[in-house]
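Now for a concrete sample entry.
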Amino acid sequence: MFEPLAIVRAVHFAACLTALGTAGFAMLAAGPAGAGHAFDRRLRSLAAAALAAAVFSGALWFGLVASRILDVRLGDILRSDGFVSVATDTRFGRIALLRLALAAVAAVSLLTPRLRWPGLAALAALTGAIAWTGHAGAGTGGLGTVQLVSDVVHLIAAALWLGALPALAWLLICGRADPDGRSAASRATRRFSSIAVACVGLLATSGLVNSAILLGWPDGLLASAYGRVLALKVAVFGAMLALAAVNRYRLTPRLPAPGAIRRLSISTLAETGLGAGVVLLAAILGTLPPASHLHMHRAAVNPDAAFVHIHTAEVMADLSIDPGQTGLSTAAIKLWHEDYSPFFAERVQLALDPALSGTAGLRHDAHQLADGTWAIDELRIQSPGVWTARVIINSKGQTAVLDAPIVITQCSNDCR
């Protein structure tokens, strides 16, 4: 679950949220509250540092995805013949190039105080465009549009609240030294508090919409890894809301008392830590297949079959081994794009590697049926346990390898 891709996604999400949140805080809360030009420069420096982290982590994210698509090591990506094709011919690559251009516009704006509103708009577009790289970007039709808009709102609202917390904590810490600083911090906090309330409402509404679409209410909440991670995210978000309520209704009214500012700065840092946990869990969710996808395909599979849905940025595979037991079985592989249009391949192979040493692995070529399914008619599995299934796809001169664990049980007395 904590694979490199999830960690890199989490860093990228946090950096984008912080860049937009800091710029928004500087313009909507700290600026009108009279925090001062010196602090405004500090906020622009923080936003610029976050933007630099977003560009670096975004490049690493692209590299990890490209290495999977091309089946090469990360260090060999730039030397690969398919690098340009991934950047220009895939949806993920084209979105990455667009977001890089938006980051450049935002960087120029952060260096030029007169372009603050264009910079804020560029940062909002940079953050909102993350929606096209995840599950929401794969939706189709009216429901897909609703999900995409909801995800964009979710990201921007998260940035303007959660992403602004480091800037708020910094202002509170800097403002403790003198009465003028405490007064400016008090005004900025009250203004930010009103913005945060609106953002929380948008987050809750958009989160419910996304969950209803991706989770497959209500049985998917604990029946899948996606649902369990989502439940943990909701729990951490609830703790964050409780702490935010204490900050708004107990500590903020006591400002600008020095003791209240000190306690509020500590509480804001704790709230930021919980927010980082929410971002990490959100990044992990993006690497897991939604429960609604699993339910949709699982319903059409023989209950005795072993089944796995493998979801990547460029191709998805539904693999079923029927029966999912030792002995003689058949395998069926269906390939899809993220929008569930068929994925066309010239050659498909299935490799099965056992978890225990001493058992030989299997590798078979599949043949394509009239409906597009790739099939293996005779698959003899010798031992039960957790096997690693690898679907090896050759398409347009490129190779993609999808892997996932699949459970094979001991056959009954009538094994073939």
About this structure: The beta strands are 306-311, 316-322, 327-336, 347-354, 362-365, 367-368, 374-381, 385-395, 398-408. Residues 4-291 form one domain. Residues 321 and 391 are 13 Å apart (CA to CA). The chain has two domains: 4-291, 300-408.
